[in-house]
Specification:
Blueprint: H1 9-17, H2 23-27, E1 33-35, E2 51-64, E3 70-76, E4 81-86, H3 91-96, E5 102-112, E6 115-119, E7 122-125, E8 137-139, H4 148-161, H5 170-175, H6 181-189, H7 197-201, H8 206-230, H9 244-251, H10 258-272, E9 278-283, H11 289-301, E10 306-310, H12 314-328, E11 336-338, H13 344-356, E12 361-364, H14 367-370, E13 378-383, H15 390-401, E14 422-427, H16 433-438, E15 444-448, E16 459-464, H17 468-480, E17 484-488, H18 496-513, E18 519-522, H19 528-539, E19 545-548, E20 561-566, H20 574-581, E21 592-597, H21 603-614, H22 618-629, H23 631-635, H24 637-640, H25 654-670, H26 672-682
Parallel strand pairs: 4-6, 9-14, 9-15, 10-12, 10-13, 11-12, 13-14, 16-21, 17-19, 17-20, 18-19, 20-21
Antiparallel strand pairs: 1-8, 2-3, 2-5, 3-4, 5-6, 5-7
The chain binds adenosine-5'-diphosphate and magnesium ion.
């Protein structure tokens, strides 16, 4: 094998911008698309909009000054002519494109001022017998200062000098009908002339499928490695004592649904194991996750361990606090409340009760983790609406779990006597199956797939803003019948200040419009005592109409509220709309959700409203959301920097994802070395530095 070419420091830093840190990364820096320079198009056959390679003689070349300084050349072949136009050009280019030169040009044709033209085509001088390219020309993702030609050369050199060893056993390749790795990589960099350009563009070619499979397989393997590694860590075994939990089940004013019983059994079994549980409890809005969390908490408590129960917003955390306080009071357990908005003194007091172990259940916002709180004997951390915390925090939380036994100042969740807490994460944003199988594959998942009985499905109506008066009449009628309504104010450019202002204005407008009703206002900037007062008044039926910002999106539970108006629904995301709508339909009355929208609708907004109008199934909605937005947005990974899939698309490649899951099982069972080698290539390629 040849020695690899030297790479200059300037080039190295540009490569780093592309995520290429090691020479072998070049091998998997695959083309975005291809240009077809394998044949020439007669100019007469070129249509506007076509990408084409043409060849001819320059019959005229001049620099035009209006509207801008432009080099304009006329290229003629036997049957036609077109113009080549360059806005920024070098004298050398002008010389290359002088009258009489024979030129081959590649570019997109369009109709311009002079007729058919190409703007900034790729040009080169040719002879009559200059050969055509034998294969499609790759176009790579690149960055400023690094030309396609330079990148191609680096990649060609890597292909010549680095091994492209097969990581997968033959038997597996045959069984899964996969192409070889080396052949696939080479083909994608240099597709032979007979390969269909469409199969490359659409990434359906066997070579692409192999690469995507490999990537998905690596993801599966690394998730499983995490999972197995967790099995080696230590957590307190919290076996069910059937004391407090049985008491709560007996005291509840309702019977658990069979789905709730099933998921609690799964959680209860995990807690009993001496390894940290990392379980995600998925259940649609209103499916009754809170009581399952309460049972998990009691199981830890009846083993003498502490529980931290965290929710993303103060309103939600407070509701949990109030609900659990009521449920647990007969059991002699008083939770402690901790949020960032508590006065310093109160916070200190709460922290002391947690640190001393006097309190066994702490409920609150992130303050539980961020403030100077340390737990005496933390056995279980429960995180509600975990998707609100983003992938970053999910990982951070887990990382906290892996800290050594020593207690660190400022870290609430840390371990105790060398163990770490179990984690229960809850979410009402259902994770589409494919996402659950890929990004969340290291978690165990329990699903509540049934709603408590007696719910009537929410009727959803769409109304354009022109029908605002009718909507007002509906609100008035519902409230005068003794029911309650929410009016949700729009998001404004993601700006909290503007949102607040709109909420206050809307509150004024609605108060003026409904003098006979009591209208409350809830938003994120209210202090917590005020917020609690408003929510309590609404819950008690003292307020009939609650104007709110999206702070009520998660967790608010007022069964008598049966009407929800979502103002400017076109600005909201699908998950958000689904969550909001889930605030009604919790009682026996027929509930109605009105999506008030402003014309004109963007295509995306129209698609979203159609989905939310047609479906009330959170899983269906999440699946559609995934299709509209892609997994990055859904996971919040854009901000978090978590490595996303580069090649595979979990929507389009679900079949490969299934294969990769199966292959991961087989490899780990039968070919652990191959599994290791494969992971090495895709995840931990840290030896083969470019500089070396
Ligand atoms: P979510 O899953 O959205 O967090 P909650 O836990 O807030 O749902 O439950 C929604 C409502 O349903 C609450 O009022 C709760 O008390 C009630 N609930 C929960 N489980 C049952 C059940 N098995 N039967 C009747 N009502 C239930
Ligand atoms: Mg909830």
């Amino acid at each position: 094998m040849k020695p690899p070419a030297k790479i200059s420091p300037a080039t190295l830093s540009r490569l780093a911008k592309l995520g290429i840190h090691h020479r072998s990364d070049l091998l998997l820096h695959l083309p975005l698309r291809y240009e077809d320079e394998t044949h020439l198009a007669p100019i007469a056959a070129v249509q506007p909009g076509m990408n084409a390679q043409v060849q001819g003689v320059i019959t005229h070349s001049e620099v035009a000054f209006r509207p801008r300084r432009t080099l304009v050349c006329r290229l003629q072949d036997n049957g036609g002519e077109l113009y080549l136009r360059f806005l920024n050009f070098y004298p050398s280019q002008q010389k290359q494109l002088a009258e009489g030169k024979q030129i081959r040009a590649v570019g997109e044709a369009r109709m311009g001022y002079y007729g058919l033209e190409m703007v900034h085509p790729k040009c080169r001088a040719v002879d009559d017998d200059t050969p055509l390219q034998q294969s499609l020309t790759p176009v790579y993702p690149t960055t400023a200062g690094l030309s396609q030609a330079a990148l191609r050369k680096l990649i060609a050199n890597a292909l010549d000098t680095l091994p492209l060893a097969e990581t997968l056993p033959d038997a597996l390749l045959q069984k899964m009908k996969l192409a070889g790795f080396s052949d696939s990589v080479r083909l994608l960099h240099n597709p032979p002339p007979d390969v269909s350009a469409a199969s490359l563009e659409q990434r359906s070619h066997a070579a692409w499928r192999r690469i995507k499979f490999d990537e998905l397989l690596a993801q599966q393997l690394s998730m499983r490695a995490h999972h197995r590694e967790r099995g080696k860590r230590v957590a307190p075994g919290l076996a069910p004592q059937h004391r407090l939990t049985a008491q709560l089940i007996k005291d509840l004013p309702f019977a658990l649904t069979s789905a709730q019983q099933k998921v609690y059994a799964e959680i209860g079994r995990d807690l009993a194991l001496p390894h940290p549980m990392q379980r995600l409890l998925l259940g649609d809005v209103g499916s009754g996750k809170t009581v399952v969390a309460a049972l998990a908490a009691l199981q830890a408590i009846e083993n003498g361990y502490q529980v931290a129960f965290m929710a993303p917003t103060e309103i939600l955390a407070e509701q949990h606090y109030l609900k659990l306080r009521d449920w647990l009071a007969p059991l002699g357990i008083a939770p402690v409340w901790l949020s960032g908005s508590l006065k310093k003194k109160e916070k200190q007091l709460a922290a002391e009760r947690i640190a001393s172990g006097e309190t066994l259940l702490a409920i609150g916002t992130h303050a539980l983790f961020q403030e100077q709180v340390s737990f005496h004997r933390l056995g279980l951390a429960i995180v509600d609406e975990q998707h609100k915390f983003g992938v970053q925090q999910r990982l951070a939380l887990r990382a906290k779990g892996t800290q050594p036994a020593t207690r660190q100042a400022g870290c609430g969740i840390d371990s105790n006597k060398g163990t770490e807490p179990h984690q229960l994460m809850m979410s009402a944003t259902p994770i589409p199956r494919t996402l659950a199988m890929s990004y969340y594959a290291d978690l165990d998942v329990s699903v509540i797939d049934e709603l408590p009985p007696g719910r009537t499905p929410v009727v959803t109506k769409l109304a354009s803003d022109a029908r605002r008066d009718e909507v007002f009449a509906r609100v008035r009628a519902a409230c005068l019948e003794g029911r309650q309504a929410y009016w949700v104010c729009p998001l404004i450019d993601e700006s909290e200040a503007l949102q607040l202002q709109t909420a206050i204005e809307t509150h004024e407008t609605l108060r003026a419009a409904f003098p006979e009703l009591k209208v409350g206002l809830a938003h994120g900037k209210l202090d917590s005592a005020e917020k609690a007062r408003v929510m309590a008044a609404f819950k008690a039926g003292e307020l009939q109409l609650l104007v709110a910002t999206t702070v009520i999106e998660v967790g608010v539970d007022v069964p008598n509220a049966s009407l929800m108006v979502i103002d400017h629904a076109e600005r909201m995301g699908l998950a958000q709309l689904h969550q909001l709508r889930g605030r009604v339909g919790r009682g026996v009355a027929q509930s109605l959700c009105i999506l008030l929208y402003q014309q004109p609708l963007s295509e995306l907004a129209r698609a979203r409203l159609k989905i939310i109008f047609e479906s009330s199934d959170g899983f269906v909605i999440a699946q559609q959301d995934l299709q509209l937005r892609g997994p990055g947005e859904l996971l919040g990974a854009r901000q978090s920097g978590v490595a996303m899939l580069r090649f595979a698309d979990i929507n389009a490649d679900e079949d490969l994802l299934n294969q990769a899951r199966q292959a991961a099982d087989e490899l780990l069972r039968d070919f652990p070395d191959a599994a290791q080698g494969h992971l090495q290539r895709w995840m931990a390629n840290r030896h083969d530095y470019l500089h070396a």
